[in-house]
Write a structure and sequence with these properties.
Oligomer: single chain
Bound molecules: pyridoxal-5'-phosphate
Radius of gyration: 19 Å
Low-confidence stretches: none
Distance between the termini: 27 Å
Mean pLDDT: 97
Number of helices: 8
Helix content: 25-40%
Strand content: 25-35%
């Protein structure tokens, strides 16, 4: 089976599912989401994703039944019969006549989709990807995994138009925040550096797992402010994300990073991360 979904506990093919036009997720982006990677039929890093979902829901004052949601996610995945998949989970504040203010006690809308996920071809991963930079124009609560993704969508599209994989959001003072759907790391003199967590970035689950994996492997990891100029002086730059995992960046704004090849630290971390996935150690 492929592309299965669940809307408030009702299961079926994605193409047949609908939500009402007065859903606040549709009207206002009044909703939060999570994306899970399913490896070998297992929801990878489930607890971490549900914890972050709980934080996002709390941050926007949305009460949803997390236990029911977890049951629906498991059942949608089971019915999909997919082993390598991506689970998208979207919780909106619910349905009400359009008005910015929300009535109390709305029933949240919960949408879950499961789609097959094809791994990035090995040759592509070995070659690495290009990135561009774009001005940081987003709101100041990027730690909430909100579905208000218009700036991210436009940035990604700009990257694709430029023949790149990702767009990195950079503040006017040169501070690098994150990609449109990834976090970013640099490697310099054998140590890793990545923007510190806070309202300026999404606390990526893969970011955390890679920080832990790198430390286990003996690397120093500094979580701090990273400047764009540092990317150009780095030995390696890589992106992290649920479906991206650890992916080397070999060019930023048409400037080569180091020798323009995916570095050994990135490669080694990707392999260690893949091993961790195989072990189910999340
Ligand atoms: C803006 C942004 N930053 C970072 C990430 C990476 O987070 P995760 O590793 O949890 O997928 C995402 C993932 O969608 C994202 O949208």
């Amino acid at each position: 089976m492929s592309a299965w979904c669940c809307v408030n506990g009702r299961y079926g093919p994605i193409d047949e599912a609908t939500v009402p036009i007065n859903d606040r997720g549709f009207l206002f982006g009044d909703s939060v989401y999570e994306v899970f990677h399913v490896h070998d039929g297992r929801l990878w890093a489930a607890e971490r994703h549900y914890r972050r979902l709980g934080r996002s829901l709390e941050a926007i004052g949305l009460n949803a039944d997390l236990e029911a949601i977890r049951g629906w996610v498991d059942e949608t995945l089971r019915q999909s019969r997919l082993a390598e998949a991506m689970v998208y989970l979207h919780v909106t504040r619910g349905v009400a006549p359009r008005n910015h203010a929300f009535p109390p006690d709305l029933k949240p809308t919960v949408v879950i989709t499961v789609r097959p996920l094809v791994a990035m071809p090995e040759a592509e991963r070995r070659r690495g990807v290009k990135a561009i930079t774009v001005p940081e124009v987003r709101w100041r609560r990027r730690d909430i995994k909100s579905t208000n993704l218009l700036p991210n969508v436009l940035a990604k599209q700009q990257a694709i138009r430029a023949g790149a994989y990702e767009a990195l959001f950079v503040e006017a003072d040169g501070t690098v925040n994150e990609g449109s759907s990834t976090n970013v790391f640099l490697v310099r003199d054998g140590a890793l550096h990545t923007p510190a967590k806070g309202p300026q970035i999404l606390p990526g689950i893969t970011r955390d797992l890679l920080v832990e994996t790198a430390r286990e492997q003996g690397y120093a990891v500094e979580e701090r402010t990273v400047k764009l100029s540092e990317l150009f002086e780095a030995d390696e730059v890589f992106l992290s994300g649920t479906t991206t995992e650890a992916l080397g960046v070999v060019e930023v704004d048409s400037r080569r990073i180091a020798d323009g090849q995916v570095g050994l630290v990135t490669r080694g971390l990707f392999e260690a991360y893949s091993e961790r996935v195989r072990q189910g150690r999340d």
